[in-house]
Amino acid sequence: MLRYIYILCGTLFVSTLVSLFTHSFSLLVWINTLFNFSLLLTIIGAAMLVIQGGFFNAIIRSFRTFFRKINPMNHVLEEIEGKKQESTSYPLTSFSLTLPLVYSGFALLLFSVIFSWYIY
Fold first, then answer.
1. Cys-Cys with 57: which of 2, 75, 90, 93 at CB 3.0–4.6 Å?
2. How many domains does the chain have?
3. Biggest CA pair distance of the chain
4. How far apart are CA 9 and CA 28, in angstroms?
5. Could you read off the pLDDT of 28-69 as tens digits, one per residue?
6. pLDDT tens digit string along 92-120?
């Protein structure tokens, strides 16, 4: 729970700093900056979630099998040496910040959309 609060406060602080250093500070600039940063957090968290789920492992395994099959030199060498095709298992990566990034980014995204709709 503490990670969520740190990410929320950090994003609010960074978006405030970025909007302060623009040409003219206004509420609209701050809301737009907050929306952009929260969208970035959500996209990064979603990409981490896809990688953590092992989506790309099957694609990598398929490419390696395909290139092993179309290379005649490897095929002949494997037959001579009597090697079997091993099925390689890739370890699943796990990130500790995946869900905090997704939830915090989505919460700030909803906040900025509702706030901008209410104000403007």
1. 90
2. 1
3. 74
4. 19
5. 899 999 999 999 999 999 999 998 888 888 888 888 888 777
6. 778 888 999 999 999 999 999 999 998 87
